[in-house]
Design a protein that fits this description.
Number of strands: 7
Low-confidence stretches: none
Distance between the termini: 25 Å
Mean pLDDT: 88
Strand content: 25-35%
Radius of gyration: 28 Å
Bound molecules: zinc ion
Order of helices and strands: HEEEHEEEEH
Structural class: alpha+beta
Length: about 200
């Protein structure tokens, strides 16, 4: 049972390290480059109405954002619609497309409005559909990347701390389990009964 628990613990430490390293790299990278990954589809509902559906992920200055956008845009007439559709470069095929771009350097990367709720690096915004933001009937949420970093660092930290304690106890001839001085009783700890490993 004890061996099984140690095995599970070591497994979780390994997973934590494997997650910690890429998040740490992305965190440092986000301090210099702000990226935006957009997954979106465009559709022309009729001659003067566009529909857009999007998922956006962005990272910037230590913040990670997700934005969900959805909405319709009405053009004043079919002529303007066809003109602006050509300019936009969208394909209007109602299929999801992926676009990876550098964006404005900002916390979380996604543009934040004054209406947004913020607390300790967390940001939340419901985006109302307005004439200026026709495709924004959605929300965006930002979390500080330090949060996953801290979570993935907990188990590796405990692992290293345990190792350090064991090493220093072993060097000082103390019981590995409880720290009792074993110089007088090297075969068995009188305090907790642990039998020390042979040197
Ligand atoms: Zn002991």
């Amino acid at each position: 049972m004890k061996r099984f628990r140690r095995w599970v613990f070591n497994g979780l430490v390994t997973i934590s390290v494997l997650l910690l390293l890429p998040v740490a790299v992305l965190f440092v990278r986000s301090l210099f480059v702000t990226n935006l990954i957009q997954v979106f589809r465009e559709n022309a509902i009729d001659t003067r109405t566009d529909y857009e559906d999007s998922f956006q992920f962005s990272m910037g200055l230590g913040g990670l954002s997700f934005e969900r956008g959805r909405g319709e845009r009405k053009f004043s007439n079919a002529y303007t619609a066809s003109l602006l559709r050509k300019q936009s470069g969208y394909s209007y095929d109602n299929r999801y497309h992926v676009n990876w771009t550098n964006t404005r350097r900002a916390y979380g990367g996604i543009i934040n409005g004054s209406r947004s709720f913020r607390f300790l690096g967390f940001r939340w915004r419901r985006i109302a559909q307005t004439p200026n933001e026709p495709f924004s009937g959605g929300f965006d949420i930002t979390i500080p990347m330090l949060l996953p970093l801290a979570i993935f660092a907990i188990l590796p930290f405990i692992f290293l701390r345990n190792r350090f304690i064991r090493t220093s106890r072993s060097e000082d001839n103390l019981c590995l389990a409880c720290g009792y001085d074993l110089r007088a009783t090297p075969d068995r700890c009188p305090e907790c009964g642990t039998i020390p490993p042979r040197k």
